[in-house]
Each structure stands twice: as structure tokens, then as C-alpha cells.
Amino acid sequence: AEYMGVLEVMCSMPRLRTFGIPCDCGFGTDGLVWDALSTPRVATCVSLSCIHVTEALQLRHVPLLTALDVSDNSLGAKGMALLAGELHHVPLLETLELSSCITMAAGAEVLASALHRVPQLSTLNLRYNRLGARGVASFMRELHHVPLLTALDLATNVLGTAGAASLASVLHHVPLLKTLDLTANGLGAAGATSLAGALHHVPSLTALKLSDNDLGAGGAASLAGALASVPRLSTLDLSCNHFGAAGVTSVAGALHHVPLLTTLDLRYNNLGPTGAASLAGALHH
Predict the structure, then answer these.
(1) Residue 173: CB partners within 8 Å, gap ≥ 6?
(2) Nearest C-alpha neighbor of 17 from the set 67, 91, 77, 51
(3) What are phi and psi of 260, to 5 degrees?
(4) Of 198, 252, 253, which Cα lies nearest the Cα of 230?
(5) Nearest to 264 by CA among 241, 239, 237, 240
(6) How far lies 170's CA from each of 21, 122, 199, 282, in Å?
């Protein structure tokens, strides 16, 4: 009952453009939220984290929407189908945040099949969904529908080698990509090799995050060989990958290809004296 006044105030603000409901705020009646949003039709940014939006998601009320965040909602099969069915109402959508809300690979397929309805999409956040290779492959098959994509977050989705291969095979569809986060996906050396072979398709990449992927010295060597393909890189996170001295030496030897680099994370890689010396030599130059 306490939030009813908030919704009434929203109805009296026809120029409202940004609306967010944080976690643990007590909003639980979805229909009332959308009734309120039906008044400020110029709203362009809506965040509905943690309020159980699955029952009454009505995007037709906000046709000018450019950013939608439904993270931290266990959407379930019904919710994912509902969201997919509503996306055609917001063709101008540029940012879609779906962190920690997709609970099954089948649901991922339903949502992925709706990407063609938001061709202006530039940011897609799918982190913390544990989609697995099958779920990720569903989104990758539809990536050609969003050629303007500049940021893709797939952190903690259990891609594995197969998922990495799926991603690598479609990177040519998103040539404007600038940020790619694949943290904690168990890519291994084989996954790193697949990804490295496709980096030339995204020459504008500025941030690549591959922390905690057990890449090893082999994966480090593959990535080092591909750095020349992404000369605009400014952030490179390779922490927690068991490189050892050999792996770090490979990366260090390729740093001259990324002269715009401002952040390099090599924590927890067992550099040792030899690796440290290689890195120091590369930084000197």
C-alpha cells in the first residue's frame, strides 16, 4: 500500500523519461506499475529489477523505450515468452539487461528468437544466467539481427569450448562491437583459440574480459597472436588463467600491438620471476 502514492505521482508526470524500481522495495503488483507507465508515454528508460514482472509486462505503454532492465527476476518459461512477445512494441530499444533472469536453455531460445524485433540494440547483458553452450548458441544464431551491437556481456554462462566456438562463428555479424565480457566461462585453451581466430571481425574492440577461464599457456599464446587484430584495445582482463611464465611471456611479447592499452589485469597467473621479467621488458618498450 505504501507504494500506491508513488504510482499516483508517476501518473502526474507526463514528461517522465527514466523510471527504476530497485530490489526489495515492496513493489509486487505488476499491473499497477504498467498502469502508471501508461501515462508518461515518453519514458525511455525502465528498470524493473527484482519485482516479479512476469505477470503484466506491457511494453506497449512505452513505445519510445530505449533501455530496459529486468535483471534479477526469475522469469521462468512464462515470463520469457511474455517478454519475447512484447519486444515488438519497443523497436527503438538500444539496451537490454537480462542478468540473472533466464532460468533454462529453452527460455533462452524463445528470447533469442525475438532479437529481430529490436534492430537498434547496442547493449545486450546476459551475465550470470548459466545458459550453457546450447543457450548461448540460441542467441548467437540470432545475432545477425542486431548489427549495431557494441557491448555483449556473457560472463558466467558456462559457455565452454562449444560456446566459444558458437560465439566466434558469428562475430562477423557485429563488426561495431567494443566491449566483450566472457568472464568465468570455462573456455579453456581451445575456446581461446576459437575466439582469437575471430577477433579480426571486431577491429573496434576496446575492452576484452577473459578472467577465470583456465586458458593456460596455450590459450595465452593464441590470444597474443590475435592482439594485432584489435589495435584499439584499452582494457584487457586475463586474470586467473594459470598462464605461468610461458603464457605471460607470450602476452607480453604482443603488447606492442595494442598501444592504447590503459588497463591490463594479469593477477593470479603464476608469473614467477621469468614472467615478471618478460612483462617488465614489454612495459619498458
Answers:
(1) 143, 144, 147
(2) 67
(3) -90, 5
(4) 198
(5) 237
(6) 35, 16, 11, 33
Residue 91 identity = P
Helix 160-168 vs helix 188-196: angle between axes, to the nearest 10 degrees? 0
Average pLDDT of the chain is 86
Between CA 277 and CA 60 the distance in angstroms is 59
Residue 49: strand pairing partners: none
- Tell me whether residue 14 is exposed, middle or buried, using C-beta atoms within 10 angstroms of its C-beta: 0 to 12, 13 to 18, 19 or more: exposed
Q: Reduce the DSSP state of residue 19 to 3 states and report it.
A: strand
pLDDT tens profile 31-84: 445 455 554 444 566 655 544 554 557 899 899 999 999 999 888 778 888 999
- pTM (two decimals): 0.86
Sequence-separated (6 or more) residues with CB below 8 Å from residue 134? 105, 108
- State the residue for C-alpha cell 530499444: 93
In whole angstroms, give the CA distance from residue 19 to residue 48.
8
CA 5-8-10 angle, to 5 degrees, is: 115
User: Between 4-11 and 30-37, two packed helices, what is the crossing angle to 10 degrees?
Assistant: 20
Strand partners, 209: 181, 237
Q: Nearest-CA neighbor of 264 among 228, 244, 235?
A: 235
Sheet with 67-69: strands ordered across: 18-20, 45-47, 67-69, 95-97, 123-125, 151-153, 179-181, 207-209, 235-237, 263-265
